[in-house]
Amino acid sequence: MRYQLCLIGLINLTFSIQAQTGFSLKDDPYHKKVEVLYDEKLLTAYCYFDSTEKPILFPVKTVSGVTVTRGYPIAPHLGERTDHPHQVGLWMNYENVNDLDFWNNSFAVSAEKKSHYGSIRHQKILKSEIRKDNASLIVLSNWVNSEGKVLLEEITRFVFIKKENDFIVDRIALLEAKEDILFKDVKDGLLGIRVARELEMPSVQEDKFVDAQGNVTPVPKTDNTNVSGMYFNKERLEGDKVWGERSRWVCLQGEKDGEKISIAIIDHPKNVGFPTYWHARGYGLFAANPLGQKIFSEGKKELNFSLEKGRSTSFRYRVIIHSSTPLTPAMLNKQASAFASLAY
Hints:
By secondary structure, the chain is mainly β. The protein contains three helices and 20 strands.
């Protein structure tokens, strides 16, 4: 692990960096966040609130300033759904790690049930770097049980890129096992974003979803006014057909505040389970889950990915927030190739 840290040159650093143009990072430890700004306008913030039970990027905006993430439960907006309070911003965790549920943990879980859940606790900022059209932030977090015992150590590098109408987030997470670890094949994981109501897919039905603890969460049918989202993947499947299928990338397109928006998540060839399965729901959950193979293949495949104590693995994802003209399959294939070529 020390060798890996030396390779990427991590150092402890307390910082407050300001710039008149291009990227800047604003460290706000009192409010437990680091704001990411471009030309002094907020694009997102790395937040490590206690109530979210994991670090998140929140909110996430387009280059032009349109917020693409749901506000609830941190900053609710009129007309938003209020289901699944654990689905907030952009995050990475998993439903079953050594029989602990990290995915569904939130302030809504009662104290007597907390022992069945895990949390990801931010430890410190290791390094930051600013350039005109990109910025990076490296952070240390621990995956812990309800008593604070560390199961996994996570070092994540966020690379924030602005290129014309694209706001790109590359998220590279190195996980080291502090004890023998088993990621059981389950539905809820791994990298997720919960999008704003306008970017959901129009739906006329009520759904009910059951988590690993047997809890049922209803998602009622609601007014579809101004709801415009539609998924498609590399294989040209659309809508609900994207769910449970493997693909190198998936894109969600819609319109919000009068602006055409595309949100794409791209998998990396070095990731476990590449190409990932997609846990993309019409109600606004957009997630990549390479570890739930038994669920998505209806039992035809099974992974049960494990890490022995002291071993590590990395998960690399690119998230593109694009505004103006929609992203095309050709543009996304080009982005996927460029992402695969990077030395992450």
